[in-house]
Amino acid sequence: MSTLAEADFPAGIGMTTTQAPFIEQAQAQGQIYIAQPYSLYSDENHEAWRRLYARMLPQWEKYANEHFLAGIANLCLNPEKVPLLEDVNKFLSPLTGFKAKPVSGYVPAFQFFDCLRNRDFPTTITVRMLDKLDYLPEPDIFHDIAGHVPMHTDKYFADTLVRFGECAHTAAVLAQEIKDKSEQTRKVASIIKAMARFFWFTIEFGLMRDRASGSIKAYGSGLLSSYGELEYSIKSPDVQRYPVQLEWIINQYFEIDHYQPLLFIVDSFDHLFSLVDELELWMKEGKLDNVSPGEPEVNDADLRSFLDAELG
What we know:
By secondary structure, the chain is of the alpha/beta class. It has helices at 21-28, 43-63, 66-75, 85-96, 109-117, 141-148, 155-177, 181-204, 221-224, 227-235, 246-249, 269-284, 300-307; strands at 99-103, 120-124, 207-209, 216-218, 240-243, 262-266.
């Protein structure tokens, strides 16, 4: 298989979500982990980043938690241009050991969580189109770098992500110990569903009580990268906000194509870390083997990633 080369594509051709020849070729060649071909970003790509960043900044100042705001400052992101991941990592890695790791798109569930265990964050490198700044079902570099990565500068949050990766490792060990194939498929699918729901309601759409004021702030990346939903999550009377409950989260389905009507509040990242410990304990006790049906559906690639995981 030939190695994908940035020089094989015209400079400025574009790294636009769903319209990026470099990504299409990487996927066709089965390459998940790739280099970031920075010269291929177009002027429109940089303009999309600039507009996204400019309009999110005042929203962050009002509604983001203090750890995120510190992270944005520590990363020294350029508000005018798509970030170069090498530069991001120069600021990020000395703080928590995490690195943004460029990928060509979808990463099967076990591999994604195992990256977290090794302090790598699989990072999308395409940018949404200028006419789709408000909502994009797929992740893009703004969601990943401006939404997720500032939180990775916080030691306690970073340690929680690593702990969640360890939890996924435990799930793969338990999966491979089940001899009956039918039971193996059923139980592992249920465990993956529970883990996905936990990740969704905490890492992606979590709220936290501010230590100083007692007010509610956002720490979930799905909120922190969405201009409309960030304010909605904090201010709208239509959102149900409850103290986090593990038994509720793992049995609560979610849908991705509209603002979230139900959100959960943690007290601190120590609290969140303890919830991952509890999640792993419940997994070992079989309490995740039969969670309620509904979204998210578990695809075959995610299932196989746990069943075929190499557990060194």
